[in-house]
């Protein structure tokens, strides 16, 4: 009887371990551009908080849905400038997406972009850059 209880307890413990150690869903590491914009709000966060948040984004996957504002091609590759509407903000949040699929997109297209965070966009003061892809 004691052995039976021990065996059942052991299997329950192992099953709980498998559930706890199983990989998280793939979207667990994703962050939306709207969330990033919210964390860059200087009325809510200090400059140090914003800097540490942006450092923590390095290597994370960013999802941005918005309108194509510009398509730029040049020597170093192609870039799509996407304006993301963020509720509660007067200015759109800008996401620069370095991608190979830029030729298929035009100004005004609604797109969904995904990619890895690369940098804070210091030229617009209200955006970030990602390496990834966009689709209509």
Question: What are the defining features of this structure?
Answer:
136 residues, alpha/beta, 28% helix
Task: Report the span from N to C terminus.
Answer: 63 Å
In which order are the strands of the major sheet placed? 2-3-4-6-5
Give me the secondary-structure category: alpha/beta
**Dominant shape:** globular
Q: Largest beta sheet, briefly?
A: 5 strands, mixed, barrel
Tally of helical runs: 3
Question: Beta-strand percentage?
Answer: 35-45%
The tally of strands reads 6
CA gyration radius, whole angstroms: 21 Å
Q: Percent range for helical residues?
A: 25-40%
- What's the pLDDT, averaged over the residues? 79
What is the string of SSEs from the N terminus onward?
HEHHEEEEE
Low-pLDDT stretches: 15-27
């Amino acid at each position: 009887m004691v052995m039976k209880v021990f065996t059942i307890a052991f299997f329950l413990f192992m099953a709980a371990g498998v559930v706890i150690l199983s990989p998280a869903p793939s979207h667990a590491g994703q962050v939306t551009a709207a969330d990033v914009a919210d964390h860059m709000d200087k009325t809510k966060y200090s400059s140090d908080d914003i800097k540490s948040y942006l450092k923590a984004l390095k290597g994370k996957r960013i999802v941005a849905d918005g309108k194509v504002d510009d398509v730029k091609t040049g020597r170093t590759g192609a870039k799509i400038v996407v304006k993301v509407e963020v509720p509660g903000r007067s200015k759109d949040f800008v996401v620069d997406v370095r991608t190979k699929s830029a030729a298929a997109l035009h100004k005004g297209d609604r797109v969904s972009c995904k990619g890895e965070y690369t940098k804070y966009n210091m030229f617009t003061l209200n955006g970030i850059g990602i390496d990834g892809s966009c689709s209509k």
